[in-house]
Amino acid sequence: MKITFCIVAFTLLFSGCVYNQSPKVDLSSITQANLKQLSWEELNDIKKDDIQSAFRVFLQDCKSEKNNLVEICTLAFDTNDSTNFFQNNFTPYQLFDDKGSKKGIITGYYEPQLFGSKTKTEKYKYPIHKLPNDLVYFDSSLFTNTTPPQKFVGKIKEQHFIPYDTREEINIRDDLEAICYVDSPIDLFFLHIQGSGRITLDTNETIFVGYKENNGRDYFAIGKKLIEDGEIQKEDISMQSIEAWLKNNPNKMEQIFNFNERYIFFEETNQSASGSLGIELVAGRNIAIDTSIIPLGYPVLLKTTNPITKEKIKKIVIAADTGAAIKGKIRADYFCGYGEDAKELSGKMKQEGELILFIPNKKSMNEN
User: Fold this and answer.
1) Which residues contact 366 (CB under 8 A, 6 or more apart)?
2) At a CB cut-off of 8 Å and minimum separation 6, what does 202 contact?
3) What is the count of structural domains for the chain?
4) At what angle do helices 239-248 and 250-257 cross, to 10 degrees?
5) In the prediction, which pLDDT does 1 show?
6) pTM of this prediction?
7) Do 148 and 254 fall within a single domain?
8) How many angstroms separate the CA atoms of 141 and 340, rounded?
9) Is residue 102 located within the same domain as residue 114?
10) Could you list the residue range(s) of the whole structural domain that residue 157 is in?
11) Is residue 147 part of a domain?
């Protein structure tokens, strides 16, 4: 087998290097990651994980039309050996950054609980907006052969395509339709960050909302601004510390929110938190990823630690979601579930971690 070596220093200039590249599959068509092929023997302690649980989530995510593993999913639905399915059909690859390090950042997210009403009142006055009628798309593939095609979000003004309104501009409009209204601007802001949530209405009915679209503006982490302004120390930054600061500084709240110009529009759904695959997320088994590095639907071995218990996390998770802040060669957002415990874990999770991507073997992809 021909062995291709990437010198670490060259990765500062070239992305998508592969250490000990296997000729089995065209890796460049799958990922832009820096990779090193591993053997399953090197991952022997993966047997401590609940492989059956991971396989069930993999099967569930296979039901999505957006899943990138059509051939492998066909095999998965027909297999009689779920325990060894990943080992029999995938090859593990360690992810590296452009400096040759296998360490990256693992954060967490959760499904928030909000309280609201279908009717705007003095108590329930903060809208969860539907997709606006004046939001339009520009698809570059219709005009040029740009690869990959780019999609721009904006609106038409005086026969010109212009950027869509910022968060601040949207918040002062009174012509947008709302799914419902909630009682807390802080909870609403964090709903935008998480991308989906459940709302308990004043009628005692519970509805679910999920991400529909954004306004095309760049995401900005307000925690970064609070650190820059000396409001919160870098070592103390977390969702909990940001939330506490916002509650203690109501007069500055709107101003700090507006530094993040990105605004999320939602749709009402019939299930709890679902990711980019459109399948209900499973706590502890799904992650949000950068799709240029890890395609949707792919299994990943996640190695990190729990920030609360300090226990090691080493388990197979499935890439099922994306996020504006989830960018980088070794970057993932760990879905923590629903409830106060999930909120606490996700808010504190900013851990060092490793990602090992499972890439289908060519033989498995051609069997059907």
Assistant:
1) 71
2) 115, 116, 117, 124
3) 2
4) 130
5) 40
6) 0.84
7) yes
8) 44
9) no
10) 109-269
11) yes
195: left (phi over 0), alpha (psi -120 to 50) or beta: left
CATH code (residue 71): 2.40.40.10
Q: Is residue 276, in this structure, part of any structural domain at all?
A: no
Predicted pLDDT at 167: 98
Which of 273, 358, 275 is CA-nearest to residue 320? 275
The CA-based dihedral angle spanning residues 46, 50, 54, 55, taken in that order and rounded to the nearest 10 degrees:
100
CB 187, CB 104: distance < 8 Å: no
Q: Which of 211, 234, 269 is the last residue of a domain?
A: 269
Residue 242: which of 255, 258, 254, 224 has the closest Cα? 224
* 3-class DSSP state of 211: strand
Examine residue 275 and state whether it is found in any structural domain, yes or no: no
What pLDDT sits at residue 148? 72
What secondary structure does DSSP assign to 187-199, as a single string? HHHHHHHHSEEEE
178 and 100 housed in the same domain: no
Confirm whether 277 is domain-assigned.
no
- CATH number where 144 lies: 2.40.240.50
The reported pLDDT for the residue numbered 20 is 43
Beta bridge partners of 133: none
Residue ranges of the alpha helices (H) in the chain?
51-62, 70-78, 85-89, 167-171, 185-194, 222-228, 239-248, 250-257, 340-348, 362-366
State how far the Cα of 5 lies from the Cα of 17, in Å rounded to an integer: 9
Nearest-angstrom CA–CA distance, 294 and 111: 23
If asked whether residues 155 and 178 sit together in one domain, one would say yes
Strands (E) across the chain are located at: 18-19, 34-37, 90-96, 104-111, 113-117, 126-129, 136-139, 151-157, 160-163, 178-182, 196-201, 206-214, 264-269, 286-289, 299-305, 312-321, 331-338, 350-360
pLDDT of residue 363: 60
Structure tokens at 19: 């250490």
pLDDT, mean of each 10-residue run, the chain (368 residues) = 38 42 68 95 90 97 94 93 93 96 97 97 98 93 75 94 97 97 98 96 97 96 97 95 97 98 96 92 97 96 97 97 93 96 95 97 60
Helix axes 340-348, 239-248, angle to 10 degrees: 100
Which residue, among 14, 55, 48, has the nearest Cα to 34 in the 3D structure? 14
